[in-house]
Amino acid sequence: MSNSSPTDEPGPLLGAADIRELAAALGVRPTKQRGQNFVIDANTVRRIVRTAEVRPDDVVVEVGPGLGSLTLALLEAADRVTAVEIDDVLAAALPSTVEARLPARADRFALVHSDAMLVRELPGPAPTALVANLPYNVAVPVLLHMLATFPTIDRTLVMVQSEVADRLAARPGNKVYGVPSVKANWYAEVKRAGAIGRNVFWPAPNVDSGLVSLVRREKPVETTASRDEVFAVVDAAFAQRRKTLRAALAGWAGSAAAAEAALVAAGVSPQARGESLTVAEFARIAENRPGHEGPGHEGSAA
Fold first, then answer.
1. Buried (b) or exposed (e) across 277-289, using 16+ Cβ within 10 A?
2. Contact assessment for residue 206 and residue 265, using Cβ atoms and an 8 Å cutoff
3. What's the pTM?
4. What gap in Å lies between CA 64 and CA 86, rounded to an integer?
5. How far apart are CA 200 and CA 178, in angstroms?
6. pLDDT of 165-209, one tens digit each?
7. Residue 124 has what DSSP assignment?
8. How many Cβ atoms from other residues are within 10 Å of residue 202's Cβ?
9. pLDDT tens for residues 120-153?
Protein backbone atom coordinates (compact mmCIF):
# COMPACT_ATOMS: atom_id res chain seq x y z
CA MET A 1 0.00 0.00 0.00
CA SER A 2 1.42 3.36 -0.92
CA ASN A 3 1.96 6.05 1.67
CA SER A 4 -0.45 8.93 1.58
CA SER A 5 0.84 12.46 1.64
CA PRO A 6 0.01 14.36 4.82
CA THR A 7 -3.52 15.67 4.79
CA ASP A 8 -5.67 17.68 7.12
CA GLU A 9 -9.03 15.99 7.12
CA PRO A 10 -12.20 17.03 8.91
CA GLY A 11 -13.28 14.87 11.83
CA PRO A 12 -11.73 13.92 15.16
CA LEU A 13 -8.34 12.79 13.86
CA LEU A 14 -5.36 15.13 13.95
CA GLY A 15 -3.82 16.51 10.76
CA ALA A 16 -0.58 18.43 10.21
CA ALA A 17 -2.04 21.84 11.12
CA ASP A 18 -3.72 20.41 14.25
CA ILE A 19 -0.47 18.81 15.42
CA ARG A 20 1.55 22.00 14.96
CA GLU A 21 -1.15 24.07 16.66
CA LEU A 22 -1.28 21.70 19.64
CA ALA A 23 2.50 21.59 19.91
CA ALA A 24 2.73 25.39 19.79
CA ALA A 25 0.05 25.78 22.45
CA LEU A 26 1.92 23.38 24.72
CA GLY A 27 5.35 24.78 23.93
CA VAL A 28 6.39 21.33 22.74
CA ARG A 29 9.39 20.76 20.50
CA PRO A 30 9.92 17.11 19.57
CA THR A 31 13.14 15.88 21.22
CA LYS A 32 15.70 13.46 19.81
CA GLN A 33 16.46 12.32 23.34
CA ARG A 34 13.02 10.71 23.56
CA GLY A 35 12.90 9.71 19.92
CA GLN A 36 9.82 11.86 19.31
CA ASN A 37 8.48 12.06 15.77
CA PHE A 38 4.78 12.92 15.66
CA VAL A 39 2.55 11.40 12.98
CA ILE A 40 0.78 14.22 11.14
CA ASP A 41 -1.25 12.19 8.65
CA ALA A 42 -4.74 10.90 9.47
CA ASN A 43 -4.61 8.33 6.65
CA THR A 44 -1.47 6.78 8.13
CA VAL A 45 -2.98 6.28 11.59
CA ARG A 46 -6.10 4.78 10.00
CA ARG A 47 -3.86 2.42 8.08
CA ILE A 48 -2.03 1.40 11.26
CA VAL A 49 -5.31 0.65 13.05
CA ARG A 50 -6.54 -1.33 10.04
CA THR A 51 -3.28 -3.29 9.75
CA ALA A 52 -3.38 -4.01 13.49
CA GLU A 53 -6.87 -5.51 12.97
CA VAL A 54 -8.16 -3.66 16.02
CA ARG A 55 -11.59 -5.04 16.96
CA PRO A 56 -14.50 -3.39 18.79
CA ASP A 57 -13.88 -5.59 21.86
CA ASP A 58 -10.13 -4.90 22.05
CA VAL A 59 -8.44 -3.30 25.03
CA VAL A 60 -5.46 -1.58 23.41
CA VAL A 61 -2.35 -0.33 25.15
CA GLU A 62 -0.40 2.38 23.33
CA VAL A 63 3.14 3.36 24.30
CA GLY A 64 4.36 6.86 23.49
CA PRO A 65 1.09 8.45 22.31
CA GLY A 66 2.66 11.89 21.95
CA LEU A 67 0.02 14.44 20.95
CA GLY A 68 -2.61 11.76 20.31
CA SER A 69 -2.67 11.11 16.55
CA LEU A 70 -2.83 7.33 16.83
CA THR A 71 -4.68 7.41 20.15
CA LEU A 72 -7.77 8.98 18.58
CA ALA A 73 -7.84 6.48 15.71
CA LEU A 74 -7.50 3.59 18.17
CA LEU A 75 -10.32 4.97 20.34
CA GLU A 76 -12.61 5.04 17.32
CA ALA A 77 -11.99 1.33 16.68
CA ALA A 78 -11.35 -0.35 20.06
CA ASP A 79 -13.38 -0.86 23.23
CA ARG A 80 -10.79 0.96 25.34
CA VAL A 81 -7.36 2.49 25.01
CA THR A 82 -4.72 2.94 27.70
CA ALA A 83 -1.83 5.20 26.73
CA VAL A 84 1.55 5.13 28.49
CA GLU A 85 3.41 8.45 28.21
CA ILE A 86 6.64 9.47 29.94
CA ASP A 87 6.68 13.17 28.92
CA ASP A 88 5.13 15.41 31.59
CA VAL A 89 3.65 17.98 29.21
CA LEU A 90 2.30 15.46 26.70
CA ALA A 91 0.81 13.27 29.45
CA ALA A 92 -0.97 16.26 30.98
CA ALA A 93 -2.42 17.39 27.64
CA LEU A 94 -3.62 14.11 26.14
CA PRO A 95 -6.83 13.59 28.17
CA SER A 96 -7.98 17.10 27.14
CA THR A 97 -7.31 16.33 23.48
CA VAL A 98 -9.36 13.15 23.72
CA GLU A 99 -12.19 14.97 25.51
CA ALA A 100 -12.23 17.77 22.92
CA ARG A 101 -12.09 15.58 19.81
CA LEU A 102 -13.85 12.36 20.84
CA PRO A 103 -16.04 13.33 23.81
CA ALA A 104 -18.30 10.30 23.41
CA ARG A 105 -15.29 7.99 23.86
CA ALA A 106 -13.42 9.88 26.57
CA ASP A 107 -14.61 7.48 29.29
CA ARG A 108 -12.97 4.62 27.36
CA PHE A 109 -9.56 6.24 27.61
CA ALA A 110 -6.99 5.96 30.40
CA LEU A 111 -3.57 7.54 30.74
CA VAL A 112 -0.59 6.11 32.59
CA HIS A 113 2.07 8.76 33.15
CA SER A 114 5.19 6.63 33.38
CA ASP A 115 8.26 5.25 31.69
CA ALA A 116 6.91 2.19 29.84
CA MET A 117 9.89 0.15 31.05
CA LEU A 118 8.67 0.61 34.63
CA VAL A 119 5.02 -0.29 33.99
CA ARG A 120 3.97 -3.50 35.74
CA GLU A 121 0.20 -3.05 35.72
CA LEU A 122 -2.44 -1.11 33.82
CA PRO A 123 -5.82 0.25 34.89
CA GLY A 124 -9.02 -1.45 33.75
CA PRO A 125 -9.40 -4.75 31.90
CA ALA A 126 -6.30 -6.64 30.80
CA PRO A 127 -4.92 -5.45 27.43
CA THR A 128 -5.54 -7.62 24.38
CA ALA A 129 -3.47 -5.64 21.88
CA LEU A 130 -0.44 -3.36 21.77
CA VAL A 131 -0.38 -0.75 19.01
CA ALA A 132 2.28 1.94 19.09
CA ASN A 133 4.59 4.28 17.23
CA LEU A 134 7.56 3.36 19.43
CA PRO A 135 10.34 5.86 20.12
CA TYR A 136 13.25 4.69 17.98
CA ASN A 137 15.85 4.68 20.74
CA VAL A 138 13.98 2.30 23.08
CA ALA A 139 11.75 0.34 20.69
CA VAL A 140 13.12 -3.17 21.26
CA PRO A 141 13.42 -3.12 25.07
CA VAL A 142 9.96 -1.54 25.42
CA LEU A 143 8.39 -4.10 23.07
CA LEU A 144 9.98 -7.07 24.87
CA HIS A 145 9.08 -5.63 28.29
CA MET A 146 5.41 -5.22 27.33
CA LEU A 147 5.18 -8.74 25.87
CA ALA A 148 6.79 -10.21 28.99
CA THR A 149 4.74 -8.18 31.48
CA PHE A 150 1.30 -8.50 29.85
CA PRO A 151 0.73 -12.07 28.62
CA THR A 152 -2.85 -11.18 27.65
CA ILE A 153 -1.52 -9.05 24.76
CA ASP A 154 -2.41 -11.32 21.87
CA ARG A 155 -1.68 -9.06 18.90
CA THR A 156 0.91 -6.34 18.52
CA LEU A 157 1.59 -3.87 15.75
CA VAL A 158 4.44 -1.44 16.25
CA MET A 159 5.96 1.22 14.04
CA VAL A 160 9.73 1.29 14.41
CA GLN A 161 12.80 2.34 12.46
CA SER A 162 12.95 0.27 9.26
CA GLU A 163 16.25 -1.31 10.24
CA VAL A 164 14.78 -2.38 13.61
CA ALA A 165 11.73 -3.80 11.83
CA ASP A 166 14.07 -5.89 9.66
CA ARG A 167 15.89 -7.18 12.75
CA LEU A 168 12.73 -8.09 14.62
CA ALA A 169 11.27 -9.98 11.67
CA ALA A 170 14.53 -11.65 10.52
CA ARG A 171 14.72 -15.41 10.19
CA PRO A 172 17.69 -17.65 11.07
CA GLY A 173 20.45 -17.32 8.50
CA ASN A 174 19.66 -13.69 7.73
CA LYS A 175 22.61 -11.36 8.37
CA VAL A 176 20.48 -9.07 10.58
CA TYR A 177 19.08 -11.98 12.62
CA GLY A 178 20.11 -11.43 16.23
CA VAL A 179 19.02 -10.96 19.82
CA PRO A 180 15.81 -8.95 19.02
CA SER A 181 14.79 -11.53 16.39
CA VAL A 182 15.13 -14.51 18.74
CA LYS A 183 13.58 -12.85 21.80
CA ALA A 184 10.59 -11.53 19.85
CA ASN A 185 10.16 -15.03 18.40
CA TRP A 186 10.05 -16.50 21.89
CA TYR A 187 6.72 -14.73 22.39
CA ALA A 188 5.21 -14.43 18.94
CA GLU A 189 5.11 -15.08 15.24
CA VAL A 190 6.77 -11.97 13.83
CA LYS A 191 6.55 -10.44 10.37
CA ARG A 192 7.01 -7.15 8.54
CA ALA A 193 3.62 -5.55 7.93
CA GLY A 194 4.46 -2.60 5.69
CA ALA A 195 6.63 0.45 5.23
CA ILE A 196 6.00 4.04 6.34
CA GLY A 197 7.60 6.99 4.56
CA ARG A 198 9.26 9.95 6.24
CA ASN A 199 6.78 12.59 5.04
CA VAL A 200 4.02 11.55 7.48
CA PHE A 201 6.06 12.66 10.52
CA TRP A 202 6.93 15.96 12.13
CA PRO A 203 9.79 16.42 12.29
CA ALA A 204 10.58 14.14 9.35
CA PRO A 205 13.12 11.55 10.56
CA ASN A 206 16.23 10.83 8.52
CA VAL A 207 15.32 7.14 8.37
CA ASP A 208 12.37 5.19 7.01
CA SER A 209 9.94 3.38 9.31
CA GLY A 210 8.40 -0.05 9.18
CA LEU A 211 5.41 -1.81 10.70
CA VAL A 212 5.99 -5.08 12.54
CA SER A 213 3.19 -7.50 13.41
CA LEU A 214 3.57 -9.91 16.33
CA VAL A 215 0.91 -12.53 17.03
CA ARG A 216 1.48 -14.31 20.34
CA ARG A 217 2.06 -18.02 20.03
CA GLU A 218 -0.85 -20.18 21.14
CA LYS A 219 1.69 -22.70 22.40
CA PRO A 220 4.91 -21.20 23.70
CA VAL A 221 8.25 -22.80 22.97
CA GLU A 222 8.20 -26.14 24.78
CA THR A 223 11.19 -26.30 27.09
CA THR A 224 12.16 -27.16 30.63
CA ALA A 225 14.38 -24.06 30.67
CA SER A 226 13.06 -20.75 31.94
CA ARG A 227 12.81 -17.74 29.69
CA ASP A 228 15.72 -16.12 31.50
CA GLU A 229 17.86 -19.20 30.96
CA VAL A 230 17.08 -19.27 27.25
CA PHE A 231 17.71 -15.54 26.89
CA ALA A 232 21.08 -15.93 28.65
CA VAL A 233 22.16 -18.35 25.90
CA VAL A 234 20.91 -15.96 23.22
CA ASP A 235 22.79 -13.02 24.74
CA ALA A 236 26.00 -15.04 25.01
CA ALA A 237 25.75 -16.39 21.46
CA PHE A 238 25.35 -12.96 19.89
CA ALA A 239 27.79 -11.10 22.15
CA GLN A 240 30.50 -12.67 19.99
CA ARG A 241 28.47 -13.49 16.91
CA ARG A 242 31.44 -14.14 14.63
CA LYS A 243 32.71 -16.90 16.88
CA THR A 244 31.51 -20.50 16.76
CA LEU A 245 29.03 -21.38 19.46
CA ARG A 246 31.64 -23.57 21.14
CA ALA A 247 33.75 -20.45 21.69
CA ALA A 248 30.93 -17.92 22.18
CA LEU A 249 29.22 -20.00 24.87
CA ALA A 250 32.38 -20.92 26.79
CA GLY A 251 31.78 -18.24 29.43
CA TRP A 252 28.12 -19.19 29.74
CA ALA A 253 28.85 -22.92 30.17
CA GLY A 254 32.01 -22.56 32.25
CA SER A 255 34.43 -23.71 29.56
CA ALA A 256 34.61 -24.39 25.83
CA ALA A 257 34.45 -28.13 26.52
CA ALA A 258 31.31 -27.72 28.64
CA ALA A 259 29.77 -25.55 25.90
CA GLU A 260 30.56 -28.23 23.32
CA ALA A 261 28.96 -30.91 25.48
CA ALA A 262 25.79 -28.83 25.90
CA LEU A 263 25.64 -28.16 22.16
CA VAL A 264 26.12 -31.80 21.19
CA ALA A 265 23.47 -32.87 23.72
CA ALA A 266 21.11 -30.28 22.18
CA GLY A 267 21.76 -31.60 18.67
CA VAL A 268 23.49 -28.39 17.58
CA SER A 269 26.87 -28.31 15.85
CA PRO A 270 29.55 -26.72 18.08
CA GLN A 271 30.87 -25.08 14.89
CA ALA A 272 27.54 -23.35 14.17
CA ARG A 273 27.00 -19.66 14.88
CA GLY A 274 24.13 -18.04 16.72
CA GLU A 275 22.65 -16.50 13.59
CA SER A 276 21.73 -19.97 12.25
CA LEU A 277 19.68 -21.13 15.26
CA THR A 278 15.95 -21.05 15.93
CA VAL A 279 14.54 -20.07 19.30
CA ALA A 280 13.72 -23.75 19.93
CA GLU A 281 17.38 -24.68 19.40
CA PHE A 282 18.50 -21.99 21.86
CA ALA A 283 16.02 -23.47 24.35
CA ARG A 284 17.47 -26.96 23.89
CA ILE A 285 20.98 -25.62 24.55
CA ALA A 286 19.72 -23.93 27.75
CA GLU A 287 18.24 -27.25 28.89
CA ASN A 288 21.64 -28.89 28.53
CA ARG A 289 23.69 -26.36 30.45
CA PRO A 290 25.76 -28.03 33.16
CA GLY A 291 23.74 -27.91 36.38
CA HIS A 292 20.35 -27.27 34.72
CA GLU A 293 17.73 -28.66 37.09
CA GLY A 294 15.11 -29.62 34.53
CA PRO A 295 11.32 -29.23 34.76
CA GLY A 296 9.68 -28.00 37.90
CA HIS A 297 12.49 -25.76 39.13
CA GLU A 298 11.67 -22.20 40.03
CA GLY A 299 11.25 -19.82 37.05
CA SER A 300 10.31 -22.42 34.45
CA ALA A 301 9.12 -21.19 31.06
CA ALA A 302 6.52 -18.44 31.03
1. bebebbbbbbbbb
2. no
3. 0.90
4. 7
5. 29
6. 999 999 999 999 999 999 999 999 999 999 999 999 988 888 999
7. S
8. 20
9. 999 999 999 999 999 888 999 999 999 999 999 9
